[in-house]
Amino acid sequence: MPQPSAACKRALADATALCPNRNREADGLMGDSAHQQRKSDHNDGNAFDLTHDPESGVDCNLFSKLALLDFRVSYVIWNRQIYNADLAAKGWRPYTGKNGHTHHMHVSVRADLRDIGSPWPWASLES
């Protein structure tokens, strides 16, 4: 049975260490029953969702850009836009999936780098 990757667990842990009182309502690691009905990196433990909570310090407008600095990232979805690391020259593009990801950002990590649990770029921010 798939387990959450070290990279994804570290991402959420780093956000919590930075902002311990942050809202975690839309956080996620493994796919729920809805995710399991379709292709999703959550099903393999290679994705995480981070709740947008700017009042507590987790502003996904910033965190989505910081995520792109990390070598493990495959793609990021935030606020009806998607950025694919393999298509970096195209920049942010419109995302038209059912969930616009306006209350949380989605980050998928590369399967071959999933076990690297090093700090995420936001770990070095000051709260």
Which tags fit this structure?
ARB_07466-like_C, 127 residues, alpha+beta
If you had to describe this structure to a student in words, what would you say it looks like?
InterPro entries: ARB_07466-like_C. Pfam families: VldE. Residues 31-105 form the ARB-07466-like C-terminal domain. This is ARB-07466-like C-terminal domain-containing protein. By secondary structure, the protein is of the alpha+beta class. The protein has one domain (6-120). Helix content is 20%, strand content 18%. It is built from 3 helices and 5 strands, in the order ααβαββββ. It has helices spanning 6-18, 33-36, 60-67, and strands spanning 47-51, 73-78, 81-84, 93-94, 104-109. Strands 1-5-2-3-4 form a 5-stranded antiparallel beta sheet, covered by helices on one side. Strand 2 (73-78) and strand 3 form a beta hairpin. The longest helix is centred in the first third of the chain and has 13 residues, at 6-18. It is globular, with a radius of gyration of 13 Å.
What would you say about this model in short?
The protein is an alpha+beta fold. It has three helices and five strands, in the order ααβαββββ. The termini are far apart.
List the helices and strands and how they pair.
Layout: H1 6-18, H2 33-36, E1 47-51, H3 60-67, E2 73-78, E3 81-84, E4 93-94, E5 104-109
